[in-house]
Write a structure and sequence with these properties.
- By secondary structure, this protein is of the alpha+beta class.
- About 20% of the residues lie in helices and about 35% in strands.
- The strands form 2 sheets. Strands 1, 2, 3, 4, 5, 8, 9 and 10 form an 8-stranded mixed sheet that branches. The chain has a two-stranded antiparallel ribbon with strand order 6-7.
- Helix 1 crosses helix 2.
- The radius of gyration is 20 Å and the shape is elongated.
Length: about 220
């Protein structure tokens, strides 16, 4: 039977946010086996069903738009694949859609985020202005950890990777929505928060929630 490269669009929320990337792939591998949806397996002695997740989410982050690729070998319709997998997946992981993969994931350009900075004793007076000032600069070069670099880090200007930003102030939290560069290089929202906290310690949040809302391609349209 000929293989067909397909994708799943799925959400990750609740306690599932704390499933690591490797464990998440293992979770889907087991779900495919339990659901009876046959997909391509790797060759060799220890064969296993092959899945690949684009732009893995950091531990603790939630998302409405995660993408998983696989090669379907079953005669099921896309709707049936969704139904079968959702019956086999744990709480917090939900498949929204199954479809044919046409555009390579390397064409993903931007990610839309909602980041919530929570403060136990209320938002510090300096925090909103400090965040706006930080992201309003012409340049902000930071050091990003890198296992490949001899120094153990690379220098990264985060400002060109912030495509858009809006900020909402509430008594006990700051919520900013931002479209950030996805890859080559990409900007993790945590780097913005770490920079804010280092430069303005009073603005350091007690807890941060990061949620990935949508994925965009080269033409600015939603990527699928």
């Amino acid at each position: 039977m000929a293989m067909h490269k397909n994708r799943l669009l799925f959400t990750k929320s609740g306690r599932a946010c704390y499933i690591s990337h490797l464990d998440l792939m293992a979770t889907f591998q087991r779900a495919f086996l339990r659901s009876g949806v046959e997909i391509w397996q790797t060759e060799g002695f220890n064969r296993h069903v092959f899945v690949s997740i684009a732009l893995p989410l950091s531990l603790g982050y939630s998302s409405d738009c995660e993408i998983l690729e696989f090669n379907l070998e079953s005669p099921f319709s896309f709707d049936e694949v969704v139904e079968r997998l959702n019956r086999a997946l744990p709480e917090g992981i939900h498949v929204r859609e199954c479809y044919e993969a046409k555009i390579p994931c390397k064409k993903i350009v931007d990610l839309d985020w909602t980041v919530t900075l929570e403060y136990d004793d209320g938002v510090p007076t300096a925090a909103p202005a400090a965040l706006r000032e930080l992201l309003g600069r012409e340049s902000c070069v930071i050091q990003k950890k890198s296992k490949k670099a001899k120094k153990g880090y690379t220098e990264l200007d985060i400002i060109p990777m912030v495509k858009s930003l809006s900020l909402e102030e509430q008594p006990d939290k700051l919520i900013f929505s931002a479209r950030l560069a996805a890859q080559n290089p990409g900007l993790n929202p945590a780097l913005i928060i770490d920079t804010l906290s280092a430069e303005t310690p009073a603005a350091k949040p007690d807890f941060v929630r990061c949620h990935r809302n949508e994925v965009y391609g080269e033409d600015g349209a939603v990527f699928r």
